[in-house]
Amino acid sequence: MKKISLFLIGILLGALATYFYCPSRNLEETEVPIVAPKGLIKPEEAKILDQAFNSRHALISDSIVKRPDNRSAWWSLEDIQNYLKYAENESKELGYTMDGVRVYLGAYPTDSEVGYTTMFLVPTGHQNLSEGSSMFFNMVEPGGDIPDGSGLNKGSAGNPPPNNYPQ
């Protein structure tokens, strides 16, 4: 009887020690560190870049499109997050590892006149290879556009389309 009571006291003390000394993890409260991305710019620099584009924009709008043209594109946060998940999954299915996105300028073609400017995203990455390497560090350069990877277009135009930064 004495051994059973010591055994039960040991289990109770072990349970209490585990409760007080082991960190409890609440998955909902797990904090993800916020890291500033490379290339982050201040609003003042964005204004300078936007103003520097004015002469090019005027050239396109005045001499080619002959009407005010788009200056920006907007996607919802949900659309961007969904696209990144979709493109990463599609890249895996195509045998690539997605490492980023590239933004292209484009224009909608029309039969009677030049269409509005648009911006679209395409996934970038490198092809998965099953070759071994004897190097300790495999330095992979950023990949190019993923062939057959779906792009994201159909962002909303500025309001109105030719407005400068900020809108």
Side-by-side strand order of the widest sheet: 2-3-4
- N- and C-termini, Cα separation: 80 Å
Strand pairing plus helix content: what structural class? alpha+beta
- What's the domain count? 1
Q: How does the overall form come out from the CA principal axes?
A: elongated
Element pattern in H and E: HHHEHEEEE
Radius of gyration: 27 Å
Count of strand segments: 5
DSSP helical segment count: 4
Mean pLDDT: 80
Largest sheet: 3 strands, antiparallel
Quote the beta fraction: 15-25%
Characteristic key phrases:
single chain; 167 residues; alpha+beta; two-stranded antiparallel sheet; 5 strands
Question: How is the secondary structure organized here?
Answer:
Elements: H1 2-21, H2 43-52, H3 54-65, E1 73-74, H4 77-93, E2 96-109, E3 114-127, E4 144-145, E5 156-157
Antiparallel strand pairs: 1-5, 2-3, 3-4
Quick rundown:
The protein has helices at 2-21, 43-52, 54-65, 77-93, and strands spanning 73-74, 96-109, 114-127, 144-145, 156-157. With 167 residues, the protein is α+β, with helices and mostly antiparallel strands. It has one domain (40-157).
Task: Write structural notes for this entry.
The chain has 167 residues and is α+β, with helices and mostly antiparallel strands. It has one domain (40-157). Helix content is 35%, strand content 20%. It starts with a helix and ends in a 10-residue tail after the last strand. 9% of the residues are buried.
